[in-house]
């Protein structure tokens, strides 16, 4: 999703380094993370770097330039985590290589543990326009008619795929009848798809 990527490059993606050591208490730092989350991923226009600076750094001893650079860096770190689908352990390992305070690292990791999966799911939904599989149901039946008399009374599987897509009328149900002659081919294709997904993951 190009919209959330932004132009600022995080230290996670380069050899550049910007300070992440902020003179905020635990409540203020968590408010900062929540504010950046709303600004970057929820597109809440009431939040901005200037607004967060005004609300949270009124008593800071850091220079205005240092605060601005650090907030841009934190914003970039959040985007990098989302783009790379970082686990909390990945994030913690990376933050420990910076000058971020240990108590802030702990807060950041717990924040990402709670919000990261939701952020990543939202970004995937925002960038997906094709119908997606919502559920798969199946049942067994007996074929009562066919082109050949030998097909009658053969067991068949009835597959029901429920798909969903953005916009009105995007939900559909697809039902398929699968016989023992083509179930092997279907399973083979699914295994090939799974192998490709595992290789690319």
Q: What can you tell me about this protein's structure?
A:
With 201 residues, the chain is an alpha+beta fold. The chain is 51% helix and 14% strand. It contains 7 helices and 3 strands; from the N terminus they run ααααααβββα. It has helices spanning 2-5, 26-40, 49-56, 64-84, 88-95, 102-126, 180-200; strands spanning 132-142, 155-164, 172-179. It has a 3-stranded antiparallel sheet with strand order 1-2-3. Strand 2 and strand 3 (172-179) form a beta hairpin. Helix 2 crosses helix 4 (64-84), helix 2 (26-40) packs parallel to helix 6 (102-126) and helix 5 crosses helix 6. The longest helix has 25 residues, at 102-126. It is elongated, with a radius of gyration of 25 Å. Residues 1-9 have low confidence and may be disordered.
Please report which band the strand proportion falls in: under 5%, 5-15%, 15-25%, 25-35%, 35-45% or over 45%. 5-15%
Structural class: alpha+beta
Spatial order of the strands forming the largest sheet: 1-2-3
Number of E-state strands: 3
- Give the radius of gyration: 25 Å
Low-confidence stretches: 1-9
The main sheet comes to: 3 strands, antiparallel
The averaged pLDDT comes out at 85
Helix fraction, binned, reads: 40-55%
The end-to-end span amounts to 18 Å
Number of helices: 7
Given the C-alpha coordinates, what overall shape results? elongated
SSE run = HHHHHHEEEH
């Amino acid at each position: 999703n190009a919209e959330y990527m932004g132009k600022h490059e995080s230290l996670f993606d380069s050899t550049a380094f910007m300070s992440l050591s902020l003179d905020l208490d635990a409540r203020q730092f968590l408010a900062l993370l929540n504010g950046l989350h709303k600004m970057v991923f929820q597109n809440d226009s009431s939040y901005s770097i200037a607004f967060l600076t005004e609300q949270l750094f009124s008593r800071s001893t850091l220079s205005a330039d240092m605060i601005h650079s650090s907030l841009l860096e934190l914003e970039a770190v959040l985007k990098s985590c989302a783009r790379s689908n970082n686990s909390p352990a990945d994030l913690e390992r990376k933050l420990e290589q910076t000058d971020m305070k240990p108590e802030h690292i702990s807060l950041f990791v717990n924040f990402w543990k709670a919000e990261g999966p939701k952020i990543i799911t939202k970004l995937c939904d925002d960038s997906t326009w094709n119908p997606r599989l919502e559920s798969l149901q199946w049942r067994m039946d007996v074929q009562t008619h066919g082109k050949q008399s030998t097909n009658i009374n053969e067991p068949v599987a009835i597959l029901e795929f429920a798909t969903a897509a953005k916009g009105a009328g995007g939900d559909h149900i697809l039902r398929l009848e699968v016989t023992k002659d083509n179930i092997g081919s279907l399973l083979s294709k699914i295994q090939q798809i799974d192998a490709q997904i595992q290789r690319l993951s």
